[in-house]
PDZ domain-containing protein (Hanusia phi), 345 residues
Amino acid sequence: KEALSITQAENRKLQKQLDEEYLKQTNFNRNDSETAEVFDNFRDFQGSSYGRLQELEDTVQNLQAELIREKKERLSLEVNLEEMDIVLKERSSSELAMQQEVKRLTDQIAQLKSGGKNSQQEHPEPSKSSWDEERSTLLRSFEEEKRSIFRHFLLQREKLEAKVQEIESAFERAIELESRRRTPDRFSLTSHESKDSDSVQSLDFEKAGFDEESAFKLPSARSADRGEEQVEEISFADRDESSRGERKLGSSSASLGLYLDGMKIIKILPGSIAARAGLTEGDEIKVINGALTNTTTCGPMLREGVGERELDLTVNRRGLDLKVSVFEGQARKVFNMNDGREIVL
């Protein structure tokens, strides 16, 4: 019995030690799994934090670029506003000077008339005919001078009004281009190459001024739209030798959308590149890509410039030189001011 009791006591002691050891092992395993889970959570948090930080950095860079662009646009508009203010001040000063000159001439004529009456009353007999003749001569000369001054100031006023209209149209064009630039691109042409034509780079149809329904019609499909005017068409459809030098009569426009009579633009199709670039009917094309034109070379030079990365034109509009650059489907206008400065829109 004593030996059995001793054995049972030892067994209970060993069982207790085994239970304690099992509890220790269980706690150790649980701590290891919790530690691993904490490390996994930390790594996930670190990865997500890095991605979020990268997104924030990209957002900051985009905001900085947008801020710089807005500053440039604001500066351009401020320059245009200053030019408009100068033109309006010149117009006001010219009108004021004209009014003062008219008043001065009117006062002189009134003085001459009153002086003639006084002279006739004082010396009616001896100098009546000679004074009348001299007075009429002076009055005619003053009337001619008055009309000349009126014509001069009216001409200056017309020039100032034309310049104001140019700047206003430039503002409207700048606003239109800005609105189109902010509009997402909807049409694009994937670049491709063929044996008989040059590669066509990716273009934005809407910015380039193309009519997406008819801009790239084949000649047979485009012939249905042709009119009866016997004028030259500047064809921009392709660049192979069979159509590069062809002179087409009685058809509507191709991709530029303009008709020429020598150097003068006589027709602009709505929605075309020429219309979006700011060209108007009556403009005379003086320079194409830096080369002077004349009535016989203007059309061929335009055809030779088709397909270039950039087509620079200088046109004369009511005495004002206007530079128009068409490139990558966009257009910009450069006004050459009388004082040598240029306004770029």
